[in-house]
Amino acid sequence: MRLQKYGLLWNVTLAKQVDSDIRLILKQVNGLSFYGFLEIHPVWGPYIYVPYALDKDKQTYLMVTPQSFYAEELLEFVNSQRKIEWYHMLHNGYKFPKSAFKEDYKQYRMSLATVLKNIDDAESVIPIVYNLLSKMAVPNLVSCEYYRKRPFMYIRTQIYEALPKQWTVHDIYNVLQSEYEGQKQIKEQLWNDMAALHAAKEPVKIPVLDKTCSRIILYAEKTTPYNINFPVIIDEASK
User: Fold this and answer.
1) Which of 21, 112, 171, 213 is the most interior residue, by most CB within 10 Å?
2) Tens-digit pLDDT profile for the chain (239 aa)?
3) Where a domain ends, among 133, 167, 201?
4) Could you tell me if residue 86 is inside a domain?
5) CA-CA distance, 160 to 2, in Å (whole number)?
6) Minimal CA–CA distance to 108: which of 97, 100, 120?
């Protein structure tokens, strides 16, 4: 798949697929390559969670700051029609009853097993919805966790109080809009930086961890006399 995103041209190819675990290679055309995992955010849509840079020998390097690459076209790689359906349902305003949240100390929790029990094929739907809602997490404010092998969504009291009687994921998003927008800016920063550097005809250099995960080195692009870019590892300490 070829995409025009973040002011650059990209190729996305399937690297590995085991059931719902879908791994993709993201390559900036005539540039650097990355390795990541296909996920779906119920508000922002499908994305590649990118924790690794990929060198010319297909070796991975853990990035100091993992990134997320958002593109609606990535739905093409999702192998679960149910997951696609529920993404669209949540994204388009599926309503949950506020009464499904029960007070739990200084927060409220909602049992997904209870609130979705009357859904067709609930047993397979519940883990899908849990996975989608878990992408709404904000530290100390919103989370999805298992308690005694049952899936729950947790929100802090101030968020609960701001929700209408029938709420959607967009209601939670609107309450915490500044937090979510801050998250997304950090998660997309690399792609925007790459576009700016390319426009300025400057090389991209990305901090990654060495193979022992004990030192920071650089994953960078080198340009040949024929104006072809390829990835290199720069280890300043070894010079």
Assistant:
1) 112
2) 999 999 999 999 999 988 888 999 999 998 899 999 999 999 999 999 999 999 988 899 999 999 999 999 999 999 999 999 999 999 999 999 999 999 998 899 999 999 999 998 899 999 999 999 999 999 999 999 999 999 999 999 999 999 999 999 999 999 999 999 999 999 999 999 999 998 998 889 999 999 888 899 999 988 877 777 788 999 865 54
3) 167
4) no
5) 42
6) 100
- Comparing CA positions, the residue from 142, 137, 3 lying closest to residue 70 is 3
Residue 81's identity, in one-letter code, is Q
Final residue belonging to a domain, choices 167, 188, 222: 167
Residue 116 lies in a domain: yes
- Classified as helix, coil or strand, 212 is coil
24 vs 37: CA distance, rounded Å: 6
Alpha-carbon dihedral sign for residues 105, 41, 113, 175: positive
Residue 142 structural domain:
95-167
**Residue 133: burial class (beta carbons within 10 Å; 0-12, 13-18, 19+):** buried
57 and 117 assigned to the same domain: no
Do 131 and 101 belong to one domain? Answer: yes
What does the alpha-carbon distance between residue 19 and residue 31 come to, in Å, rounded to a whole number?
30
Q: Give yes or no for a contact between 232 and 217, defined as CB atoms under 8 angstroms apart.
A: no
Q: Do the beta carbons of residue 184 and residue 177 sit within 8 Å?
A: no
Q: How many domains does one find in the chain?
A: 2
* Structural domain contains residue 83: no
